[in-house]
From TrEMBL:
Binding site for Mg(2+): 116, 185, 213
Annotated protein name in UniProt: Folylpolyglutamate synthase
Source organism: Anopheles minimus
Reactions mediated catalytically: (6S)-5,6,7,8-tetrahydrofolyl-(gamma-L-Glu)(n) + L-glutamate + ATP = (6S)-5,6,7,8-tetrahydrofolyl-(gamma-L-Glu)(n+1) + ADP + phosphate + H(+)
Subcellular compartments: Cytoplasm; Mitochondrion inner membrane; Mitochondrion matrix
One GO molecular-function entry: metal ion binding
Keyword presence, Ligase: yes
Cofactor(s) needed by this chain: a monovalent cation
Keywords for this protein: ATP-binding, Cytoplasm, Ligase, Magnesium, Membrane, Metal-binding, Mitochondrion, Mitochondrion inner membrane, Nucleotide-binding, One-carbon metabolism
Biological processes annotated in GO: one-carbon metabolic process
Length: 501
């Protein structure tokens, strides 16, 4: 049965849930693990307050993570034994990490992968050999860590944040499972991110950079680059794609300061020596091609170090096993297509920056069919500029209708895995109404609609836009969390870990 949690329930500390006489041991299952985990989220007002004092708290995430790691017996010295690849960036860091993981697994290595956010289940964030950890594995590690931290806290608020807790849990699982290598995706930024407690990462990746999370990371590309380059470690090999001059200058300075080796990889795949060509190579859009190029170099560098083979200059030889890893890579919610119901094709892409929305719009315009109805389902949260995102979409694609909806799958209830106290429902609804106003003004039409849940959106699509004469291509974008809500509402959760093709 799906794990449901009423969306109107007021958040409270999980310790308050034990007021009944039930044994704590009987309650230590996956469902209650997720409720306990959700109690570690910051609500919207706390998050806003933290933004205002961010400069005072820059190192807090790192210091707190070290403190809590030590409390559960994961010292930095022990963490140093974890073979890790660390990746930051603005665009495509999740998909690049997924490609690196798939390549390493195809080459025979046992992998761990920590990423965020999840689409449907929290377990997606911690993967072993490409598969989300089982719920019993997750809950076993969760309760061991949670109970230790609860017992050792010095005051009621002395617990890690949601993301910090999951970072600790992932490291604990990877160490206990003795993976050959783990691929760790930065949460936000890099320099002060919880994941940056890693001190011995010899291979580092930085994907394409752009403006994002400006209230937290800074208002200029130089600020963003300084944050992202903060994961560079002394003597590490740092791989990045061609960047804007102000970004590459900052990365070069950080590498020089850390005596790290900077490698700028080709932005396309034409110059490689292929054992065989990837099956989808001709159909890759430019950003996917660039991320694939970066992933090849990151993975190949790590393999050579593991095998104690010297790095070589000249054109890179891409082995058959590496190509198989590229072909087998599946990363849900990014340039993903799913045939659904009769005559509907879902186009899922979690783009949420102007640059990534631009690529998403070109992808949809190229892959959707001109004689189909083109429908947009959109939401955005946080400090994203919805007007810029929408105008970028509309400059490339002409839609027949648009639906603005919060990241809620079904009216009246929400999966516990999907609860996000950072962006409360009413705040999301207000944003949806504003987005519809932007749409109406830009389109000079009234074919924009606001709904309170995804199931309600599809009910209107079925009633108003579906017919035997016109198939529909439906683009869902603007928020990764929205994609999770769509997959949940349509009962397509299996496509978070298996490809529809």
């Amino acid at each position: 049965m799906p794990l449901l949690y009423a969306s109107c329930v007021k958040r409270q500390p999980f310790s308050a849930m034990h007021a009944s006489g039930e044994s704590l041991a009987q309650e230590q299952n996956y469902e209650n693990a997720i409720l306990a985990l959700n109690s570690l989220q910051s609500n919207f007002s706390v998050l806003q307050a933290s933004v205002l004092r961010k400069h005072k708290d820059d190192c807090k995430h790192i210091n707190d993570t070290i403190k809590y790691l030590d409390r559960v017996g994961l010292t930095l010295q022990r963490l140093d034994t974890l073979p890790a690849i660390h990746v930051s960036g603005t665009k495509g860091k999740g998909s690049t990490c997924a490609m690196v993981e798939s390549i390493l697994r195809s080459n025979g290595y046992r992998t761990g992968f920590f990423s965020s956010p999840h689409l449907v289940s929290v377990t997606e964030r911690v993967r072993l050999n490409g598969i989300p950890v089982a719920t019993d594995t997750f809950s076993g590690h969760f309760w061991k860590i949670y109970n230790q931290l609860l017992a050792l806290r010095e005051h009621n608020q002395d617990m890690p944040s949601y993301f910090c807790f999951l970072t600790i849990l992932a490291f604990d699982i990877f160490l206990r499972e003795a993976v050959d290598v783990c691929i760790v995706e930065v949460g936000i930024g890099g320099r002060f991110d919880c994941t940056n407690v890693l001190r011995r990462t010899s291979t580092v990746g930085i994907t394409s950079l752009g403006l994002e999370h400006t209230k937290l990371l800074g208002n200029s590309l130089k600020d963003i680059a300084w944050q992202k380059a903060g994961i560079v470690k002394p003597g590490s090999d740092v791989y990045t794609v061609p960047q804007l001059p102000q970004c590459i200058d900052v990365i070069e300075q950080e590498c020089h300061r850390s005596k790290a080796n900077l490698h700028i990889v080709p932005s396309d795949l034409r110059g490689y020596c292929w054992a065989k060509k990837p099956s989808q190579m001709e159909d890759m859009c430019s950003i996917v091609e660039m991320n694939t190029s970066l992933a090849i170099h990151i993975a190949t560098s790590w393999i050579r170090k593991a095998q104690k083979v010297a790095q070589i200059s000249g054109p890179l030889v891409v082995t058959k096993q590496t190509v198989e890893g590229i072909d087998d890579c599946f990363w849900p919610g990014r340039f993903q297509r799913i045939s659904y119901d009769s005559g509907k094709t879902l186009f899922l892409d979690g783009a949420h920056t102007v640059e990534s929305i631009e690529v998403c719009a070109r992808w949809f315009n190229d892959k959707s069919k001109r004689d189909h109805k083109r429908i947009l389902i959109f939401n955005t949260t946080g400090d994203r500029d919805a007007l810029k995102l929408l105008s970028t979409l509309l400059s490339t694609v002409k839609f027949d209708a648009a639906f603005f909806v919060p990241n809620v799958a079904v009216s009246g209830a929400m999966r516990a895995d999907a609860i996000n106290h950072n962006f409360p429902f009413e705040q999301q609804m207000q944003r949806c109404r504003e987005n519809r106003t932007c749409w109406d003004e830009y389109m000079q039409s009234k074919n924009g609609f606001v709904h309170e849940s995804v199931d309600s959106v599809f009910a209107q699509i079925d009633k108003q836009f579906s017919s035997v004469l016109a198939d529909s291509d439906i683009l869902i974008t603007g928020s990764v969390h929205l994609i999770g809500a769509v997959l949940t509402a349509l009962k397509l959760e299996r496509y978070t870990y298996t490809s529809p093709t």
